[in-house]
Amino acid sequence: MLRCSRACAVVVDSLGSMNVEPGLYLYLGSAFGPGGIEARLARHAARSKAKRWHIDYLRPRTSLVEAWFSTALVQLEHDWAARALALPNAVVPLPRFGASDCRCASHLLRFPDSDSSSRSIEQTLAASDSDSFGRLEAAQLRGLARANQALRRAAG
Fold first, then answer.
1. Which terminus of the chain, N or C, has fewer Cβ atoms within 10 Å?
2. Alpha helix locations (H) across 18-137?
3. For residues 58 and 26, what is the distance between their CA atoms, to the nearest angstrom?
């Protein structure tokens, strides 16, 4: 979950320009590649990195609030995107964001910046996978990013 405090415009690779309005942004993705969920969360928490995915274009304009994740061995991002899109006040800020390889409308949704929005989203996602659902706050994610960077420096 990301927070944007100021309106701005961001050019997102081949998707074009996106008006980023203040609010909470829910980004949904998977982490089945090398390093798994730990490496993916550390990458998203890091502020400076090469632009590889759509989220990398938005990330410098937002602050990291928290991350919700699942340790399930199946992809839930498409189900979670559909469930979150059905929530009241969900807005697709840029069609196909993070969803260029699937049929989802978007893997990025904007919500009003409120505790009730955050709780509602978390409850919706957790309800689909309560046994393997987890949550990390921003400070935990920043620590993970620092540890990951130190490991990469040590590896040379």
1. C
2. 36-45, 54-58, 77-85, 115-128
3. 12
Across the chain, mean pLDDT equals: 90
How many domains is the chain built from?
1
Domain ranges, residue 114 = 2-155
Q: What is the pLDDT of residues 35-92, one digit of tens each?
A: 888 888 888 888 778 999 999 999 999 999 999 988 888 889 999 999 999 999 999 9
The span from the CA of 128 to the CA of 57, in Å, is 29
Q: Which helix (H) or strand (E) holds 11?
A: strand 8-12
Buried b / exposed e across 27-39, counting CB within 10 Å, b at 16+? bbbebeeeeebeb
Look up tokens 């040379």; give the residue.
Answer: 156
Angle at which helices 115-128 and 77-85 cross, to 10°: 140
Is the full-model pTM beyond 0.85? yes
d(CA 93, CA 95): 7
Name the nearest CA neighbour of 1 among 56, 94, 69: 69
Whole-number pLDDT of residue 138: 82
